[in-house]
Sequence to fold (445 residues):
Amino acid sequence: MIKSKLKMDKIRTRFAPSPTGFLHIGSLRTALYAYALAKHNGGDFLLRIEDTDQKREVPGALEALQTTLKKFGLTWDEFYTQSERLPLYSSAAKKLVKDGHAFYCDCKPKNAKLEGFSQELRDPCRNKSLKSGAIKLKVPDDKVVSYCDFVHKKEISWNTDTVYDATLLKSDGFPTYHLAAMVDDLSMKISHILRGHDWLPSTPIHLLVFDYLGGKRPEIGHLTDILSAETGKKLSKRRDSVFVEQFLDMGYLPEAILNFVMLLGWAPKDNRELFSLGEFVKNFDINGFQDANPRFFYNKLNWFNGHYIRQKTDKELIELLKNGFLPENTDMELLSKIVPLVKERIAKLSDFSSFAGFFFEKKEVDKTLLGKNYKEHLSKAVEALERGILLDKIPEENGFKVGDFFMDLRIAIAGSKFTPPINESIEILGKEESIERLKKVISNN
Fold:
């Protein structure tokens, strides 16, 4: 169980995304950790949609988000939408003004993105005694605010002289994150907040809001940044694949993505690597959070995905391949013969087409890939097939190098150096089709 000042209370965590597009891989990790933290301790996991910035909302994003979370088994106990809770935020903001912890501001922001933020830490309206406008936090002078980060396991503090007067309620009546999330965390009795490291600079604002609103302040943990293995920089939408839906479309299985993501910032005591969601919840330990930023290695993700592909039965794999990873009008009987050959060799479902597409259509052969003796190799292969002789005997009988002979055979049959076992592939293609492909390569100069 979690050792904290809230240990006697029920553990309640939340995942609070904005419906502004696809689910970021880092957000999936946050949701997973929040889910495991709650469920390991018999608590509740809440899904809260933070949709108060309606200019950024993408149509259909809310439904897509819920569908994606369900694919990973991250189901929630309670569901909330912030746009349906506006009176609560307005009431909280006005109370802060009444209590002297906030003030009205009638300054016009330079643009929508800059609303509520000024290069000046102290807003000029804080001493005007206005009665309308946006509501901003009245940050006290020369006060230390601090908290203990349960991910990084250390005390972090700020002097309020470095904290700006942040907007809490905009002039249009909609709250900013600084108000809405804190009001919700208190009213929903959230015990532990897990969020991205980019929220750390805003934390002193949130600590003040928590203190001024009253109630039990949740414990806070900031997760590490996931870094690109290539650049060493934080994963970027411009440079990297960062959305969960992209990985699903590439043929990564949900259980593989989840297993990979759970180890990007958390480690078990025994260095175990393979976990189902249920096993992860059972073994989850809050002390397993890592302090160093993890790197996103595709070869590791591919290893996980290949493992989970090979756990599927042939029938299950065929059903997965039907979700957009097969050529049109695929012969299911032919497919059932091919799947056992490729299951051990593909890392993701999208590999099937490049690895086994030659079964369904003839591939153009790049003759620069062939060896200098390819015509002799292929001619002997044709003779063997016509006479029913095993291809494995051809190299020895003719003094061919085994590797060179079979490489030419692969390229001529499949148009690629990388194929399922070539003897079994030829058997599936059939003698006539295989001979036709070999003769075509031989005859084309």
Notes: Residues 25-40 form the longest helix (16 residues). Residues 367-443 form a domain with the Arc Repressor Mutant, subunit A fold (CATH 1.10.10.350). DSSP finds 17 helices and twelve strands in the chain. Residues 1-6, 112-118 have pLDDT under 50 and may be disordered.
